[in-house]
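User: My collaborator sent over this chain with a note saying "see what the structure looks like." That's all I know about it. Can you take a look?
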Amino acid sequence: MFRAHDNGAEAFTRYFQLPATERKPCHYIKTVEAKQRKAEMSDRDIDIVAQGMFWTANANHSKICFWLLAHIIRDPALLEKVGLEVAPALSKDNIHILYLTDQCPLLAACLNKTLRLCTDASSARNVDVATPVGHLTLSPLVKILIPYRQLHYDEDYIGPGILAFDPASFLDNKELARSPCFRPFGSGVTYCSGRLLTRREVLALVAVVVACYELELEDGVGGVPAMDRTKPTLGVMDAVGGEGLRVRIRERGGGRCDIGYILREDGWGWVEMPLLAFSI
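Assistant: Without extra context I'll predict from the sequence alone. Here is the result:
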């Protein structure tokens, strides 16, 4: 694992050594790198930060979008409400991110509910001194892995109906999203540095999908795929056996023929032509 980490960091070292004209970084990477250089961060630190950003971006973002859309699409009433809520955030050539983050409580509650149900983050810690935990005592120099999912499924803190996708819990209790028992992005020194960017990216993509396209389950049936709770993850759980949802999509007001898709955790699977040009 450490060898793979070092190989990844070395790849980013070679990338950042290239002239900007050759690597043509996107606006985000260019801006972050400029601020890091201004702060006199070392090349090694810049490489490690970039590796972390790319790692989490490719490991979790698409899965969060998948689970959030899957839950919204299977509930037509919720889908309509979310679509109406986010519509003012979309203009012809722009997405107003601050509107999505500050003026769309239902979408935010749906995202938080998705994170509570589908994330399986963990933290690793070293034990420095003998520490009693219940009837056990953790010895010094031991490494421990701390999963957070148990907190997300504790009715004493979250409330009843922990397995149901009901965003009302986050709407009715504004403090729940800041509760120490809600940790979808970990905590402490391993608190996800990309959590704010992740939220904005997910909100933007889901807003575009639900506001710009008519979505319905094929034949009007289908449930959210089961989560695979049997294996460790990098943050967000997979669907069992790569299951997906059959979804029919029509561009709103465009008169385009229906397009069939299978919504999967790694993107929109092809079903029939023509194919709409976006993916998650």
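A starting point for your reply to your collaborator: The first helix runs from residue 2 to 17.
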